[in-house]
Amino acid sequence: MSSTDPFLAPEVLLEHLQTITILESMFPSEITLPSSFSVLSDLVPILESNNPVLPPSTPLPADFRLILSLDIGSSPPRLLELEMVLPLRRSFDSLTSSPRPPSRIVLKLPTYLSRSQYAELCTSPLLELPPEAPIEDEFIDRLLLLVDHLRETIPTLISENESQRVHRESSSQESEFNQKELDRVWFWLPSLSTKEKRNDIVRMAPSWNLTGFVLAGKPGILCLEGNSKAIDSYMGWIKSVSWSDIPAFQKITERHRTPLITHRLFQDMVEITDLIEHRGYHGNRGEMGQVRTWIEDRGGMIEQQGSWGWHQAQHDDRAGVQMTDEL
């Protein structure tokens, strides 16, 4: 279609003008009008006259193209551009077919959606107005339905994209943390009693593919098995986020780190505080003999050692640990 094709019927052009006026009142700051809008506005007296004929040479394009910059209601705010196309002319070869070409709404591809998501949105029947439909009312009704549909759908798509991004990063991190080179690391805490902080230790460990156990009390004990980098990253999170309110001198101390010779002793991350008896004046000192028994029940082998530490030993094909009562 070209700018020399005949115009649509005068009543159709007047309806387009009325539609644009309504849209401008509904979206005063979001609508960008074409420069040719003022030209058609100046022609209203002719269109409303008894001889409403516009010569093909009238300086008007084949259609009006309005841009609606729509806030889709996401957080942070994101805009979606909709181009509304209102035809002003029809081609010579369509003079005997439909009364007028359809009005359309074109979605611009935003950076925050994938091409497949964009393509799916573009299949909406709300984007094209049937030629036989009343222009003004039908177009505005469809536009409002489309706006509601987009504001409901797009935030969900953005959330899906964010979840997929986090999953990809998590998978990449998990791949790094699933390396075969595994360590067992023992940590000493002067005191561990807060339930929320103990819960964080257990709850967050799977995100780093770590296993082991934690024992609350004075002192507290934490044993971790996993990739060395994963252990360091996990402990960095624990210290800076979960335990950010604890003074540095009261925080955890790494006491021993050794490579696993065979396999993990622990299959998950658990708290064993309620499984172990406690002694001492305040009843907060864990009974290490029961800790030994608990470890041996899981296939570990315990050996006494003269200095502080829990160490891995090799006994046949089982992972063993050495420990001391200096806890």
Description:
The chain has 327 residues and is α+β, with helices and mostly antiparallel strands. It has 2 domains: 10-160, Ubiquitin Conjugating Enzyme; 182-323, 2-Layer Sandwich (Alpha-Beta Plaits), CATH 3.30.70.100. The chain is 34% helix and 22% strand. The protein has 8 helices and 14 strands. Strands 8-5-7-6-9 form a 5-stranded mixed β-sheet. Strands 1-2-3-4 form a 4-stranded antiparallel β-sheet, with helices on one face. A hairpin with a 7-residue loop joins strand 2 (63-71) and strand 3 (79-87). The radius of gyration is 36 Å and the shape is rod-shaped. The N and C termini lie far apart (87 Å). Residues 302-327 have low confidence and may be disordered. Pfam families: Prp3_C. InterPro entries: Phi-like, Prp3_C, RWDD2A-B_C. Residues 186-250 form the Small nuclear ribonucleoprotein Prp3 C-terminal domain.
Topology, please?
Blueprint (H helix, E strand, L loop, with lengths): L9 H17 L4 E2 L4 H6 L1 H4 L15 E9 L7 E9 L16 E4 L7 H7 L13 H43 L4 E8 L5 H10 L6 E5 L4 E8 H15 L10 E7 L9 E3 L6 E2 L5 E2 L1 H9 L5 E3 L6 E5 L2 E6 L4
Parallel strand pairs: 6-9, 12-14
Antiparallel strand pairs: 1-2, 2-3, 3-4, 5-7, 5-8, 6-7, 10-11, 13-14
Helix pairs in contact: 1-5
